[in-house]
Amino acid sequence: MNRTLALASFHSVSTISNWSVTLATAPRLSPPFLSIQLRRPSLFHLTPISHYTKKLSAVLAMDSSKACSVKELPVGLDEATEEEYASQSKLLQEFTSISSIDKAWIFKSDSGIGSQAMFSISQPNLLANKKRKFMLSSSISKESINNVNFQWAPFPIEMTGVSLFAPSPSGSKLLVIRNPENESPSQFEIWSSSQLEKEFMISQSVHGSVYADGWFEGISWNSDESLIAYVAEEPSPSKPSFDDQGYRKGAIKDKECSSWKAQGDWEEEWGECYAGKRQPALFVINVNSGKVEAVKGIAKSLSVGQVVWAPQVEGTEQYLVFVGWSADPRKLGIKYCYNRPCALYAVKAPLYKSEAAEFDLKSTEESTVVNLTQSISSAFFPQFSPDGKFLMFLSAKASVDSGAHSATDSLQRIDWPTGGKLCSSTKIIDVIPIVNCAEDGHLPGLYCSSFLSKPWLSDGCTMILSSYWHSCEVILSVNVISGKVLRISPADSDFSWNVLTLDGDNVIAVCSSPIDVPQIKYGCLVDKANNSTGWRWLNVSSPIFRCSEKVMSLLSSHQFSILQIPVKDVSDCLTKGAAKPFEAIFVSSKKNDGTDPLIVMLHGGPHSVSLSSFSKSSAFLSSIGYSLLIVNYRGSLGFGEEALQSLPGKIGSQDVNDVLTAIDYVIEKGLANPSKITVLGGSHGGFLTTHLIGQAPDKFVAAAVRNPVCNLSSMVGITDIPDWCYVESYGSNGKSIYTEAPSAEHLTHLYNKSPISHISKVLK
């Protein structure tokens, strides 16, 4: 076969989601050029494959009687090619400029008729390698059962320099937080509907930056909107100072030439994006006085996050509920790793009392921290019911107990004590248990990445949330008393649906597909009076996702489907769930006759999932002439716990065979040309990509990888997730045999599981 493979290998201390660089060219692959740009080079440690093969070239030439050598390739670009690249670059910019909705809030209008919506929107700023964030508001009026009207503000407002914002429960106030880029104070602003009401500068001696990471992050207003609890970096500890005479007492200025500061005690971090960040700690600010108080009594070994106020019980002390992650025995990487044990805790909040309309925070001297979830290994995303009777939370106990970095969630309930007396032996009730293997058409399990800030319908016991259902994201209603779960987004839709916010008992959501830009939908119960379970979804005209006519024309010329791929060797499956078909999303031109080049796209994790939602990068690739095969191999989220747990211990074999089976499936159906197939993946997807070109080098004309795991025996000694290497390589036994000092036998096993063990086949 006439082909050339260019492959760059990047090794990171953990998995990350940002695409990095590879360049793959193949003379027989048309369009002839695929390039993915490195946007954040500082996040990666470059380890070329040549490190292992003692060759300095990253270009691997495949044997072929017709192949051109690298030297014979033209150095310059002809005019036609240059114009083609310029055209594709412009088209890529048109795709990337499409905005995304990050969050939304609903407030009742002052007139009591209709409501006001506020949308937090982001748009890539490619030149600055950042995201522009802005707000857009709309007035909502439901004119009839079949018609809803959104009146959009004429222009959005850019939120320059804003790290976080959180509306108060009533919607009358808005907290805006601006984190400093240096040692300056954090800026807290309290806005009313028309003006800035309060502004406070919180010194670094009080706390560092407020956490805005989506995980430790937590901001919660109390019921009367006088106090806000939040999570911020603990203040920097004092560091010893020295000059030419030795140790120096007292503070010194950083710019004193004759003096210098030591770094102080080394402290562990939670890996990856938390490098350089101090321990997350809990604080409360009085919005009237600006006084900040650290919450006392929390052990230094606990990293805190996701704080909420417990219901106020008259005559009792006020409590805060938060998630705590223990540093015992040590901190490992936490990004995308739900297997880190955590629990819900309650602690007495700093108190206030009213004296001539003056509010004053008073810290509790002896605060007792109560572990509310001692009987379960994982608890996060605490959410109280509107009447304060229930405390709901998610649990990743399947992940913690098995060691898999992500697995099937469960939804749990605690009945909150009416008298305010807390107990560590509180009964925990399974509302949605872990689903091992569901019957066709039934809930495959709960896979929920977050809760809404207000997820409740007016009955006070029904939550609305989004979850993965095979290759789609769907919207569910959950009765937290009976445990009844309903899929309220259309069951006959292969689109992905994500809930944004609730407007009373109506749902505002977005739906999209690989070939359809996101569309806002407004969901209403068909017959609420008679307790109907059917939902009607209305289209909402919106300026948010507008794109060029060229982009819309290209997308309209494509089609997609979700393929059911039978497992080849069912006899090797130890569980029923592992023997069930897996899925792949196939995107192609409507005129596809099997001649278009095919890109096989592989997600990372491995316990993640590729959804049937709109992806700007994937849509761009399909628009320039590629068909896409997006494989959700066994081990992906959304298919039940048995299918997921079938992969640990079999990486590099079961997942590789699933991908090859999916490729053979589309070839047999006449959807792909076997001589025009390339493969692309990042992190564990890069692990799979490099395995595939090693185990089946004749199958692919090109490969592109981002941040691949190429050598587990090397990775285990430098990564912040060494336990991942053991669990995925050894399976359920990996958690118990994990050690920070791998034996020669362990290193050999890890090497044999790695793509690098197949490098000789690629070089032939």
Automatic annotation (TrEMBL):
GO biological process annotation, one example: proteolysis
GO cellular component term of the entry, any: cytoplasm
Catalytic activity: Cleavage of an N-acetyl or N-formyl amino acid from the N-terminus of a polypeptide
Broad class of enzyme this protein falls into: hydrolase
Family: Belongs to the peptidase S9C family.
Subunit structure of this chain's protein: Homotetramer.
Subcellular location: Cytoplasm
Domain Acylamino-acid-releasing enzyme N-terminal: 71-551
Main subcellular location: cytoplasm
The protein's name: acylaminoacyl-peptidase
Origin organism lineage: Eukaryota, Viridiplantae, Streptophyta, Embryophyta, Tracheophyta
E.C. no: 3.4.19.1
Keyword annotations from UniProtKB, A to Z: Cytoplasm, Hydrolase
